[in-house]
Amino acid sequence: MKLASYESSGKGTWGVILGEEAFDTGGVLQDRYPDLKSLIAAGAYAEAESAMKSAPRQKLDSLQWLPVIPNPDKILCVGLNYETHRLETGRAVVAHPTIFARFGSSQTAHMRNILLPRVSRNLDFEGELAIVVGKPGRYIERKDAFDHIAGFSCYNDGSIRDWQSHTHQFTPGKNFPQTGAFGPWMMTPDELGELGELRICTRLNGEVVQDAQLGQMIFDIPTILEYCSSFTRLESGDVIATGTPGGVGVKRTPPLWMKAGDTVEVEIQRLGVLLNVIADEG
């Protein structure tokens, strides 16, 4: 099943995506599940499927998309999780995942602009696989990790590199408004299937700038969930961006920055394509 958040008649809703249409199941179930996060928390996917029978439909090309989870309790991001990226940054091998956080307000959606802030021109791309947490939990064991996943999505962890490197703590460079693109939808694990051989690809103005297999992650998904749930309780609707492959703009010669008017796409095989245009903050 594919599930997405979007606007309908000027209000936020969520729906089931089937083919080239969105079914406004959130409108039908508004009293019980006002947002996608609440549906996930209840595990009410059968209700969503049943509500499709009476739900209004809308063509995908007319949607005003929202981030898949517009209101996550938290967004955790894994840094340096592909060997190609670790090598290009010159970072040492580490025993544990490198974790940082994003604010929900830093997100943007499929077909919405990524903003180039007025204080920097150093806007970089980072195509990633995102996990949407389903069943909450603390101290999740590796063997149970996939029982806690509601779905997967595409993420572009847009980074303001000069602000990221102001100090050893790089939170500012990862939290400018409308820099973390998330979408178009989440796909449930049963539909996506095995992840390891799937390719993740980032394109800038149609040119491939990142290309890898998801199975090339240094720390796999069970390790990430086990580690993150050890220092914080994972809640339904939490988002975990699992890291980016090599090829980022900051490590090219000369650096390759995204600029106003550019189009950036993150594609994950079988999952979908997240597309954004870069715009000046204005």
Over all CA atoms, what is the radius of gyration? 18 Å
CATH C-level label of the largest domain: Alpha Beta
SSE run: EEEHHHEEEHEEEEEEEHEHEEHEEE
- Total strand segments: 19
- Summing up helix and strand content along with how strands pair, one would put the structural category as alpha+beta
| Mean pLDDT figure | 97
Assign the CATH architecture of the largest domain.
Alpha-Beta Complex
Helix content: 10-25%
Largest sheet: 12 strands, mixed
CATH H-level name of the largest domain... which superfamily?
Fumarylacetoacetase-like, C-terminal domain
Tally of individual domains: 2
Percent in strands: 25-35%
CATH topology of the largest domain: Fumarylacetoacetate hydrolase, domain 2
What general form does the structure show?
A: globular
N-end to C-end Cα span: 38 Å
SS field, number of helical segments:
7
Low-confidence stretches: none
Key features of this structure:
282 residues; alpha+beta; Fumarylacetoacetate hydrolase, domain 2; 7 helices
Task: Describe the model.
The chain has 282 residues and is of the alpha+beta class. The protein is 16% helix and 35% strand. The chain contains seven helices and 19 strands. The chain has helices at residues 25-28, 36-42, 45-51, 83-89, 161-164, 189-192, 221-231, and strands at residues 2-8, 11-18, 21-23, 57-59, 64-65, 75-79, 98-102, 107-109, 114-116, 123-124, 127-133, 149-157, 159-160, 180-187, 199-204, 207-213, 239-241, 263-268, 272-280. Strands 1, 2, 3, 4, 5, 6, 7, 8, 11, 12, 14 and 17 form a twelve-stranded mixed β-sheet that branches. The protein has a five-stranded mixed β-sheet with strand order 9-19-18-15-16, with no helix packed on it. Strands 10-13 form a two-stranded antiparallel ribbon. The protein is globular, with a radius of gyration of 18 Å.
